[in-house]
Structure formats: structure tokens, C-alpha cells
Amino acid sequence: RKEVEQDPGPFNVPEGATVAFNCTYSNSASQSFFWYRQDCRKEPKLLMSVYSSGNEDGRFTAQLNRASQYISLLIRDSKLSDSATYLCVVPFSGGYNKLIFGAGTRLAVHP
Amino acid sequence: NAGVTQTPKFQVLKTGQSMTLQCAQDMNHEYMSWYRQDPGMGLRLIHYSVGAGITDQGEVPNGYNVSRSTTEDFPLRLLSAAPSQTSVYFCASRTGENIQYFGAGTRLSVL
Fold first, then answer.
1. How far apart are CA A101 and CA A77, in angstroms?
2. CA B72 to CA B4: how far, in whole Å?
3. How many of the other CB atoms lie within 10 Å of CB of B32?
4. Which residue on chain A is closest to B40 by alpha carbon?
């Protein structure tokens, strides 16, 4: 099993829809995780951090389920501009505090 | 507000050629990393550095060298390019809270 796994998608949703992605991980005791957004042919950029208490930023809600070892990202009222690939990032302990990136979930929002 | 600057943006090499990808950051981050991104495989760590004068191998280091003579600069050298090194390369620096900032990427093709 990979350390971090994501459904590659694509998730094709209409504008205004609510969509959710999960990211499963193995063996991380980190207190914070991350969601990054990557537009086509661009670099990844931080979307939001995910803490044990969850995190909400406008239309975006991220949650951590430590018992089942997954993090989730919920996007409400999808916009065309939300179309992108969403990468989850899991820190693993070690000398470097290694960050493992998921391969990403592609979201396509259509009119 | 430059952040992480990578050059070049595009490069085409012939098999066996060598080259250096440049990376500089102006945020005074100690941690810097080089990743490659291939379709369906996510970001894979090539080499990383936890401070000037300190470098170490990541997940896929073969065929690449790095050095870190200053906090700002972290160049990646391809010693003898191979077609398997065709990829998109990202340099990143990160904060003590594991938030990564990426350069715009280098698209490399090895013929």
C-alpha cells in the first residue's frame, strides 16, 4: 500500500455542486496535514492546512479522521475556477520530517 | 516578493548532456528540496537540504547532484541526462511548520 493515496478522478461536477475528496495515509502521527492546489502546468500552492479540529476557509472545509487515517476536502458551491488538481500532503516522522505528496485528484467544474 | 525562483522554465537536452537547474529563495528558509513530477506518480523527492552545507538524498536521487553553499541557493545538477529524466522539476523551500513554497517548475525533455 502506498503511504498516501488519492482517487485520481476526474471528478466532473456542475457549477454550484458540492464535491468531496478523500486522501488515505498510513503511519503518520503528525498533528497537521495539508491540501495543495495545482493548476494545469503550474506549481502546487497551499490551499489549506488540516488540523485535528478540522479547518474551514470560505467554501472549503478540510477534516482529519485519525482513527481511519484519512483527510478530506469538501468544496461547496463549486466555481469554474475551482477546476484544478488537489494534492494532499502528509508529514511523516524522521530526521527530515518527510512530506509525502499524494498523486492528486483532478476536479473539473463545468457550466 | 519573489519567493522561490527557478530557471530555466524549459529545457531540451540530448542523452548524455549535463546541465544545472537553478533555484533561489529569498524567504530565509533552512529547508529546501527538489522534486520531480511525472503523470500519475505525484511529486517525488530527489534531494533535500536542511541548511547551508547539508544535503541528503531523497526517494529518487540517482543521476542527480546537489549542493547548498548558501541559504538562498540550491542548484540541481543532471550529470549525464537520460530519457528517463524527462519530467517536470520543482524546487521548494519550506517553513518550520512544513508549509512548502514551490518554484514555477522546469519542464525538461531528454531526447
1. 26
2. 9
3. 28
4. A103
